[in-house]
């Protein structure tokens, strides 16, 4: 029987390499695995090429050590590969790890899960983006795709400040983009249905529902249900933003988390400022180019988008059930 071997794709900016190598060596020995293959990401290749190399060299497990961008890039190449993805989160977001309730700040536990955990099949979001110059790019994402204020906020965030204070850096960016009065003018079709028009400040398509700071944006989203949850934010002035904040932070963040709260939610009304949809495929056409983000990383401007779910396309290592 061949001894299994892992490959670890790491972002050198995000990890303490010496400490990580020591922790991996200890877990390899405990799990009875061969020496891990180490592959470093680069500015030009954030993880796709490294994941391909890992598969070509016969890795039985590919561990992504870095931020959300590294995880997304590696997952893109592991789609339908039959090789599990292990998560060693770092950076400010760790969005997939948060949504899978994985350890965020304990390297030893995260490595134990990667080497000796259970396999779980989750959905992968695929997206085709048409840019203003006519080029089309296809990508995968794990958590959310966003158009509008969401993407503008990310592009307005100071990267140096983000490195120092994490998600607090977005406060300045949020204040900046909320002054932007431009709305998205969208024509869309959901699951091959009729074309509809909507004006909105933001539209987000989610495979998972939780954001950092325990914000539950898409309360019914699940990583393995075969559908997207979509939220359209269209506040009208200050009152509309207040309605959104109450819905997201109070109802989703507090009431929904206990039985009494869920009963109280039955008494609340839906608000026009925030609408939820579900579907497996969404096609969007925009009146003008708009910025788009995937899993917290900017992907330029889009004039049209097609996104769909690939159910169970990615296998992820999660803690072993006791």
From TrEMBL:
<dbReference type="InterPro" id="IPR004363">
    <property type="entry name" value="Methylgl_synth"/>
</dbReference>
<feature type="domain" description="DAGKc">
    <location>
        <begin position="1"/>
        <end position="131"/>
    </location>
</feature>
<dbReference type="Pfam" id="PF00781">
    <property type="entry name" value="DAGK_cat"/>
</dbReference>
<dbReference type="InterPro" id="IPR045540">
    <property type="entry name" value="YegS/DAGK_C"/>
</dbReference>
<dbReference type="InterPro" id="IPR017438">
    <property type="entry name" value="ATP-NAD_kinase_N"/>
</dbReference>
<dbReference type="InterPro" id="IPR016064">
    <property type="entry name" value="NAD/diacylglycerol_kinase_sf"/>
</dbReference>
<dbReference type="Pfam" id="PF19279">
    <property type="entry name" value="YegS_C"/>
</dbReference>
<protein>
    <recommendedName>
        <fullName>DAGKc domain-containing protein</fullName>
    </recommendedName>
</protein>
<dbReference type="InterPro" id="IPR001206">
    <property type="entry name" value="Diacylglycerol_kinase_cat_dom"/>
</dbReference>
């Amino acid at each position: 029987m061949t001894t299994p071997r892992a490959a670890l794709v790491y972002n050198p900016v995000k990890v303490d390499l010496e400490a990580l190598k020591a922790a991996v060596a200890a877990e390899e020995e405990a799990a009875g695995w061969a020496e891990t293959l180490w592959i470093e990401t680069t500015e030009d290749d954030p993880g796709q090429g490294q994941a391909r190399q890992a598969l070509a060299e016969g890795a039985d497990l590919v561990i992504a050590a870095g931020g959300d961008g590294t995880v997304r890039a590696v997952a893109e190449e592991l789609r339908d590969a039959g090789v599990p993805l292990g998560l060693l989160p770092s950076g400010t977001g760790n969005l997939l790890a948060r949504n899978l309730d994985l350890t965020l700040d304990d390297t030893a536990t995260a490595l134990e899960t990667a080497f000796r955990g259970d396999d779980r099949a989750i959905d992968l979001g695929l997206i085709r983006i048409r840019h203003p110059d006519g080029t089309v790019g296809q990508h995968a994402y794990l958590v959310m795709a966003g158009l509008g204020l969401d993407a503008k906020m990310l592009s307005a965030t100071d990267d140096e400040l983000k490195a120092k204070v994490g998600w607090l850096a977005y406060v300045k960016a949020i204040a900046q983009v909320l002054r932007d009065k431009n709305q998205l003018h969208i024509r869309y079709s959901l699951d091959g249905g009729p074309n509809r028009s909507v004006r909105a400040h933001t539209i987000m398509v989610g495979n998972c529902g939780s954001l950092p700071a325990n914000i539950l944006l898409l309360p019914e989203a699940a990583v393995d249900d075969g559908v997207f949850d979509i939220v359209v934010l269209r506040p009208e002035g200050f009152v509309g933003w207040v309605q959104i904040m109450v819905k997201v932070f109070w109802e989703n963040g507090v009431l929904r988390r206990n039985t009494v709260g869920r009963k109280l939610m039955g008494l609340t009304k839906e608000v026009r400022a925030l609408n939820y949809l579900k579907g497996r495929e969404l096609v969007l056409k925009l009146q003008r180019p708009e910025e788009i983000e995937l899993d917290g990383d900017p992907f330029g401007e889009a004039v049209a988008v097609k996104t769909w779910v690939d159910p169970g396309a990615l296998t992820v290592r999660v803690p072993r059930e006791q």
